[in-house]
Amino acid sequence: NKLLTEREVIIIASSSVAGAALLILSLALTIYLICAKRKQLYRRSQRLQQKLKTWSMRDPLEEFVQRESVNQVTDVSYKPTALVRMSTRRESHLFKIWNQSRTIKKLVFAGSMMELIQAASERLKLPHPDKIVLEEDGTEVTSDEILLACAGSILLVLQPGEEWEPSLTLDVNQLPPTFNNLHRHSTISIIKSLQNIGAEMKTVRPEAGGAVVNEGYDSLSDEDKISQ
Asked: Which positions fall inside the CIDE-N domain (predicted)?
């Protein structure tokens, strides 16, 4: 074995040191990349957890209310009259309206006194409707709440100068059961019965009637026949 020269020893030592340094550098770079990747994954997981947390705490109804409130606020600056009409709109009900003489009768939908008076002016051909009363007793309707409570009742629409008057129509079925009323009911029922009997007699054929008469004549005795 030959002894190594000093130059060769230096070269071998330097190459060993360079290899070790390169190994250490590669290890350090690998460790840095691993740490950077783990740090990136950690940040991503943190952001994902925050998003999941906000989504779980989010209320869909509250978001909808917030969006609607924002839309209404934006609409107020552009369409204030539409919002006012929407907020003041009432539910419509069906009403029977007559004029004072009870000759014109209409059905209308309305949700307030103003709407009903306007509809009465158009449907009943009244130029200046002034007052609304109940047809049965003349009670005046003075507010929207009372009007909605009277839905289904017959209402009279009066003009200035007109007053409520009771109806002249007499309903026999609504009269109290006095003697005169009972007598009137019985008379009407008797007349109807006689009319029905007359109608049935008209439907009997002449041949059938003659057969009945002959049969009755044959059943008489000889003395009765002679007397006839």
From this structure: 91-166
The beta-carbon contacts of 167-170 under 8 Å, at least 24 apart in sequence, are 167/102, 167/135
Query: How many other CB atoms sit within 10 Å of the CB of residue 121?
Result: 15
Indicate if the pLDDT at residue 204 is higher than 50. yes
Task: Evaluate if pTM is beyond 0.70.
Answer: no
Element (H, E) at 156: strand 154-158
More confident residue, 150 or 59: 150
Q: How many domains are contained in the chain?
A: 1
In a domain, 133, yes or no: yes
Residue 21's CB: how many other CB atoms inside 10 A?
10
| Residue range(s) defining the domain that contains residue 151 | 93-158
In whole angstroms, how far apart are CA 212 and each of 206, 208, 218?
Answer: 10, 6, 10
